[in-house]
Amino acid sequence: MKNLLSLNDLTNDEIFKMLDDAIKFRNGELDFSLKGKVIANCFFESSTRTQYSFNTAELRLDAKVITFNPQSSSLNKGETFYDTIKTFESFGVDGIVIRDKKTRYYDELKNIKTVIINAGDGTGDHPSQNLLDLLTIYDEFKTFDGVKVLIAGDIKHSRVAHGNVKIMERLGMKCYISGPKEFMDNTAEYIDFDEGVKSCDVVMMLRIQRERDAHLETLTDSQYLEKYGLNLERVNKMKPNAIIMHPAPFNRNVELADEVIECSKSRIFKQIENGVFARMAILKRSFE
Fold first, then answer.
1. pLDDT reading at 69 higher than 80
2. With respect to CATH, is domain 127-267 assigned 3.30.70.20?
3. What's the pTM value of the predicted model, to 2 decimals?
4. How far apart are alpha carbons 39 and 60 in whole angstroms?
5. CA–centroid distance for 140 within its chain
């Protein structure tokens, strides 16, 4: 049994093996079962796609699923994060999928022996999102070598950006970041937004993570869309085979114009679909 805390902990061969498994699951070519296993999904932060696609993946693999609700838990009585996870381990669950607002929360869980799968830690990492993003890009280009990726928006607060850049560049892609200066860090090389839209193969938009106190006092939503958002005018300047991605949830008419979300270049809902198969592959790796 194996934890998954970051794709950066894995070799390239291990990543490609999970991608291959995800494709086989999607094609109905892989017979693998978690029958008899009990998985607890412990999300201490709000989630729709990650939580419920893990749930869907677990059910498709015949596991039994426990969904933790922090709002009605003993956290309200002063129980600590560690003691909550230790309690689920004491129940005898076979694995725990965890999301928490603290970066590297798993450093507190070194005494936990059951399988831990990181479903997002603060602004640090998001390995299952990184894997489904890789799967979506590979579907499109059949290679990672030389693919140019623009990640635009709130880089500073984004675990998706921080995880993706390291893995993507390791696999042969070239990553750029763009957006308001207040949201930039040293994750990747900065490029002017409009230049990046025109020159990159993948344009990955990020929302402003207001739950992490990310704010732009100087711009309204409409001004943000005009200056840093992806609208049809910019989409029409993209390379012919370029695609649009977004980890979601997206904020309509802020970083993405309404009409862009399901346009012909958009792969946003394809990413969500791929998320189930990527997470099935992650579960297989942890329990095979």
1. yes
2. no
3. 0.94
4. 13
5. 18
